[in-house]
Every structure is written in structure tokens, then in C-alpha cells.
Amino acid sequence: MAPSGPGRVRRRCRRVLYWIPVVFISLLLGWSYYAYAVQLCVVSMENIGEQVVCLIAYHLLFAMFVWSYWKTIFTLPMNPSKEFHLSYAEKELLEREPRGEAHQEVLRRAAKDLPIYTRTMSGAIRYCDRCQLIKPDRCHHCSVCDKCILKMDHHCPWVNNCVGFSNYKFFLLFLAYSLLYCLFIAATDLQYFIKFWTNGLPDTQAKFHIMFLFFAAAMFSVSLSSLFGYHCWLVSKNKSTLEAFRSPVFRHGTDKNGFSLGFSKNMRQVFGDEKKYWLLPVFSSLGDGCSFPTCLVNQDPEQLSMPAGLNPASKNPENHQFPAKPLRESQSHLLTDSQSWTESSTNPGKDKAGMSNPALTMENET
């Protein structure tokens, strides 16, 4: 049924309002460019060498900041592939079955060949009624975007976009370059800020730009440093913001470190294998976002038997047992350095990395 006229108007108004934080950041960035490049460097700096060095370094940071911010905003979040959607017959069968064990049995049959290991808190298959699909691991439904987002981290109002598998690297670089941008401005503006309070600057409009520029850069540096540090910690542990608030539930139970493969492999999963791309906002993350290497710290009754000599309770990520069911080849090569698959038919490989592609939004598990 087509939405009513007032409903469409409300949705369009919300979409416009969602862009207000982005417009605010863009205007603030534009003013900071004028205040620093023109009023500080050109008008206030008397040393030519200082002017040249500051302008070159500033424009380099400015370009990387804008590039990563643009990619974070306009990279579309990736949605689950068709194999996770129910067929027409499965949807009809699901609608006929009441909520309960019969309902779950339909979902279990549909999910038996899918590379999923996480469950709801009650141990049920993670299914999205809104999108009518079985959720891949680490996938969540965003109430703002009204879509299921692969490896969803959070919905960010400052970029008016969901931060997930397709743009999480861009978001990290956006935080990093915005922090460096603010720190650089604060550091190079400090001496002129001091001159403002000691009446060492000429009485022009430049002095007020210099004062407010330092205050803005210093305040944003504090907030950005804490946010960037938090996300660096998340990457080192291979967690999303949602998973930090609510640990993923596997078939053997809750495991807050279920996706952690060790610091090096966790970094490579986000930034890719080629270090030359790590500092550039180009997509280089490993995998397809639908399946991830996972370590099991307890015996999973649905997996193959564990060899007698291994300790299932080990908390060392390098000693965890990995799932018996094969993962996507683009992810499974992360495991070949320290573990072999328990199924002899599994053939790990390596895919070519690279594809083109605000407030925390939690999902309701069903």
C-alpha cells in the first residue's frame, strides 16, 4: 500500500533535518579554512618560511580530512546478499507457522547452509521481520535507515549515515585526520592566541578569528581524541560499538571476544593486507561483510568434535578453535597462519580486496 501524503512529507522533513549536523560541520570547516589560511597565515604571520610550511601542512591535512569525511558520508552501507533473504515459499511457510518452535524450525532449515554462528539471547536464529531475511553475523537493523546493515557499528548523525562494513575504515580515518587537523591548528595558533591576550596583535578582525579558532580546535581535539581512542580499542579487539554494549551470542553462549583473532589480524580485517592503502580512504577491508572468522571458546554441540588434546576453555585467541563450517574465502585466509580447518574439504584462499561501494541505534532481536 502506498504511503499517505502526510507520511511522505514527514519522511522528507526528517531526511532534511538529518543533514543539519553535516551542514554544521561543513560550515565550521569552511570557516576554519578562512580563519587559518587567510587570517592567520596570510594576514598575521610575518615570517615567509613559516607561512609556506604551515600552509603546505595545513592543506595536506585539510585534503585528507575532507576526503575521508566525504567517503564516510557518501559510501552506501552494504546490505545482506540475496542468499540471506527467504524464498517466497519460505516466507509463506513462515507466515503460516505460529511464533515458537515451528517458526524456528523453518528458519533453521533456511539457515542450515549459511555461514552464520551468532544467535539471539534466547538462542534463536537471528531473523529480521522488517527486511524478511536471516541476519548474517554482526549484521543489525538500523531503525533510521530502515535497513539491515552488514557489520553495523552505529548510526552517526555527524555523517548522516550508518557506519558499518563498507565505510568503517573511512570513519576511522575521518576521526584520525580530523583529530590531526585540530591538533595542528591548535599547536600553530597557540603563540598568536597568547599574543591576543598580551595585546601583541594588531587591532584587526584577524585577532578574533585567531581566538575563536584556537578555542574550537582545542575543544574538538579533546572530544575527538577520546572517540578516536575508543574506536582504536574496538579495532584491536575486533568489536563494533554494538558488540561492546552487548556481546555477541554464539550457539555455545555469549562470547565478548568471539570475533577476535589477535591484534594483527584484527587490524588487517579492517584495513586490509596492503599497508600502502591503510592511510588512504579507499576500500581495502577484507571479506564481503556477510561472514567473519570466529573463534569458539567452548564446545559447540552443532560443530564437529574437538580433538582430545585441545583445551576448549582457552582464552588465548591464537588457541581458539574455529568453526567447522567453511567461511567465505576472502576471510578464511586470516586463519591459515595459526590454525587449520577441522574439515578436510575446506580450502582457504584469498580474495582481492577492493569494492566500491547520527546517536547509537540498537536493534530488536526477534
UniProtKB/TrEMBL annotation:
<dbReference type="GO" id="GO:0016020">
    <property type="term" value="C:membrane"/>
</dbReference>
<keyword id="KW-0012">Acyltransferase</keyword>
<dbReference type="InterPro" id="IPR039859">
    <property type="entry name" value="PFA4/ZDH16/20/ERF2-like"/>
</dbReference>
<feature type="transmembrane region" description="Helical">
    <location>
        <begin position="16"/>
        <end position="36"/>
    </location>
</feature>
<protein>
    <recommendedName>
        <fullName>Palmitoyltransferase</fullName>
        <ecNumber>2.3.1.225</ecNumber>
    </recommendedName>
</protein>
<feature type="compositionally biased region" description="Polar residues">
    <location>
        <begin position="332"/>
        <end position="348"/>
    </location>
</feature>
<comment type="similarity">
    <text>Belongs to the DHHC palmitoyltransferase family.</text>
</comment>
<dbReference type="GO" id="GO:0019706">
    <property type="term" value="F:protein-cysteine S-palmitoyltransferase activity"/>
</dbReference>
<feature type="domain" description="Palmitoyltransferase DHHC">
    <location>
        <begin position="125"/>
        <end position="246"/>
    </location>
</feature>
<keyword id="KW-1133">Transmembrane helix</keyword>
<dbReference type="InterPro" id="IPR001594">
    <property type="entry name" value="Palmitoyltrfase_DHHC"/>
</dbReference>
<feature type="transmembrane region" description="Helical">
    <location>
        <begin position="208"/>
        <end position="230"/>
    </location>
</feature>
<feature type="transmembrane region" description="Helical">
    <location>
        <begin position="48"/>
        <end position="70"/>
    </location>
</feature>
<keyword id="KW-0812">Transmembrane</keyword>
<keyword id="KW-0808">Transferase</keyword>
<feature type="region of interest" description="Disordered">
    <location>
        <begin position="303"/>
        <end position="366"/>
    </location>
</feature>
<feature type="transmembrane region" description="Helical">
    <location>
        <begin position="170"/>
        <end position="188"/>
    </location>
</feature>
<dbReference type="Pfam" id="PF01529">
    <property type="entry name" value="DHHC"/>
</dbReference>
<keyword id="KW-0472">Membrane</keyword>
